[in-house]
Amino acid sequence: MMRNNQTDQILTHPKAHPKAHREVQIPSITSQGILKIIAASSAGTLIEWYDFYIFGSLATIIATSFFPKGNETVALMSTLATFATGFVVRPFGALVFGRIGDLVGRKYAFLVTLLIMGGATTAIGFLPTYDQVGVLAPILLVALRLLQGLALGGEYGGAATYVAEHAPKGRMGFYTSFIQTTATLGLFLSIGVILTTRLNVGEEAFKAWGWRIPFLLSFALVIFSYFIRSKLQESPEFTKMKAEGKGSTSPLRDSFMNPYNRKWVILALFGATAGQGVVWYTGQFYALYYLQTVLNVDFVLANKIVATALLLGTPFFIVFGALSDRIGRKNIILAGAALAAICYIPIYQAMASAAGYNAVTGTSINPDFIALTSLVFVQVFFVTMVYGPIAAFLVELFPVQIRYTSMSLPYHIGNGVFGGLVPLIGTWAVAASRTAGYSWSMYAGLIYPITIATFTVIIGSLFLKDRRGEINFPSAG
Asked: Measuring CA to CA, which of 367, 371, 408, 449 is 20 to 30 A from 233?
């Protein structure tokens, strides 16, 4: 079947068409200019992650407000399932907003996602509880959680692509790694706001109404971020592509129906983002749930432990992003996944010991803050290895015409589905194995992330290519 030249150009990697890419003249970007772009992009993305993660950080509190009382485990599982819906729907957001981003522009897409996310998050702060409206409460909660997932599905790909298309040649890993810090900083911010609110209003008031404050705060944060982002210009590479009439008229078809691009979408998922996703959510979210629900460490102390580890680990996103510019992305990502798979069980055994956990009473006595923070930090360090280079890695796999769409889907399936299900599957596995009477039940939640991370290391090592430096980007002025 015959295809026109424009379609051929869209459906294959830019390396296959060097002449077409030499025709694109992109203006130089100053170091000060790229820093402003990163600051504006990162601010919005950080706030979207904050919006998305305050739900997870408050799962144990929300469980008592939106689901029937009587069985705390069932209520928590229901809340985690609601939390997971936001992850599962993220790939659909990637398709919807990825298409918009490739057709209309990166800036327009991530302005829309910011408003949707902020609106849904603020609305959660106003929701009536189960005691007030019965089953309508969890229904409304799930609906707003779905909107959050759709928005985040379109946000990340836009921000990462936008920064990458401004990055100086040879520095893409370094500059996009600032976007990579926003997920962890968003989680850190959510924990910080929750702790501050909890300590100021008191435990009982926080459970009754204080938990709404972090959600309501989102409104002011989103307005501030929207104002900053609205002043941004479209990326020069995308603008040039549109001016020359080389854009894709059907990004979804060109991304997933063409065998060449579809192959890289699949390999990016199973050889990189699936393992990266489970490592991210194990090291940052499951670690928090493990402290709270398995080791029964105090709510405030558990959040302080994770928040401190996140703060200490965040600079390493930049370290590994920059290192990937020198030695490549793939090996760093796979090394992080392999280390996590090997080390999780001994780390979580050490966490139980450091918490002073008594298996008979199910309580922890005199938890060692420094030891527990160090053990969570090691997990965050693995997160920085797999996550720091991933944006640059994905951007380099796909041509500009379909980049937003193509990179967003494997990223959000890997993180939203494989990674996002870690807390739910982990909590369920611990509960089920305890019911069965297994002596190793408290570590059962690690089986899933270890299996996925190992699978990713095997697939990535055998079939995935590192395309560092294959795409020409503007040089710094």
From this structure: 408
